[in-house]
Predict the 3D structure of the following.
Amino acid sequence: MQRWIHAEKDRYDLVDLVQDLLGDWTLVLCWGALGSRRGRLRIVGVASEAEGLGKLEAITRRRQQRGYRRQVRPEPIDVGHGIPAGATNAAAQRSTGDD
């Protein structure tokens, strides 16, 4: 998986080339704003691993041209609204009425 961050624009871009259960190669693309729960996901089928790697290289060039920097050591991307990782879901904290 490749992670790209544009710090000045608070944007992220994730790209991964994976093989599905049927043996087909797919390119998984995710992008959005850092600190937001909104984002986009797109899955693109490719004919072969070689074609997928070619598309991955093209994406790499485009990201570099647009000012993104690749994260070599993956770090968690905060796509929430500052919610700590250990926070529990508010719905799970509601009383069930059995108290």
Remarks:
- Helices lie at 49-65, 90-93.
